[in-house]
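Lab notes, practical 5.
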Amino acid sequence: MTKKEILMPMLQNLIDTDFRSGFEDSVLQRCRFALRNAGLNDEANQMWTCYCTGGYLLAFDNDQELLDKYNEADEVSNREGCFVMPSWGTSGT
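Output from the prediction step:
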């Protein structure tokens, strides 16, 4: 299976179920786990690295449709009810 074949249904499911990000549970993390579970460890690591360093489109193999679906799922995940880091968690204790 390709990255797109793995991620598109998973991302749509997150949208359909009104997923919210948690402390250690984000859309990007779910993408990484889905790829790893499919045996695509190198692709999972490359996607994570590219995304975290600002290569958003590259992280999704230059597939704009896949990136758009990711962004849609990510937007849903950050709506009211998602985990929000308290101010002391970002500025020290």
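Observations recorded by the TA: The first helix runs from residue 3 to 16. The two ends are 45 Å apart (CA to CA).
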